[in-house]
Amino acid sequence: MSTPFRQFQAFHAIMERGTVTAAAAHLGISQPAISNLLAQLERRTKLKLFERRRGRLVPTPEAAVLFDEIDTIVRGLDHVNQAVADLQNRTAGQLQVATNHALAFGFIPAEIAAFCELRPNLTLAMQSQYSGKIQEWVAAGLYEIGICERPILHEGLEERRFTFETLCAIPNSAGLSDHAWVTPADLDDYPFIIMGADHMVTRRTREAFHANGAHFRVRCHTDLFRNALNLVKQGLGAAMIDPFTLASDDGEGYVVRRLNPTVHLDIVIVTRRDRPISVVGQEFLDQIIPRMEKIATDTMQDRIEA
Length: 306
Known about the structure:
Arc Repressor Mutant, subunit A, 8-stranded mixed beta sheet
């Protein structure tokens, strides 16, 4: 069964933007047109994609599955349209970067701003996403540069690996401000906020506790280092946090201490192995790689209170 792409595009916009109004503005068409496209898609697919509750559209489980399947396709067409526009306007290149959330809060926007300062005609495509999706986008050619966590899930990707020390953020109320370092024994049975049971930082922290005979007590799971740090600031527990998230935070409500033994986070820059990188992309990498290398060797001592 053939389904017109415009219907998928309207559905994708509603899912991504959250409302019909925002989707219509994004696609540059009227709200009734968006609603009509969605109704056509539901009739064609014989799927109920949204529940209408109190005037709001709530995606059904079927909508979530469909969105995952068409996301890369819709973004691919947007990518083609942007390339055509760049060629028509003779734009001097486009920087395409997909980054994980930790670097998206401060580091990458600042680097992009510095990069664009001498390139006023440069167009940009920047997106933050989870690491698996970033690798999918780079492998599909939607983004030229991806910055994400290991492991590498797609063949055909070149990787440049960086290893960063994570630091332990502890609520002020924990009474550990006089420690220059903390150990698993210091935090035995203390509540922790973690990045999911299978995340590399969680696994490595748990291993450090077990190796030192301390109980690693998990109080809360979350999906972003930023969320974990915000929960620390509310006094709910400690968390191992990456240096990028710490650098973009105000530092209020908690202390930061190095954990002995150290727990590391592996981040990679990925590009497609079978496609030469553009001049613009290589220049951006030449800018950010030395800065990431410096952060990788920096223990963030300036964030640690004496």
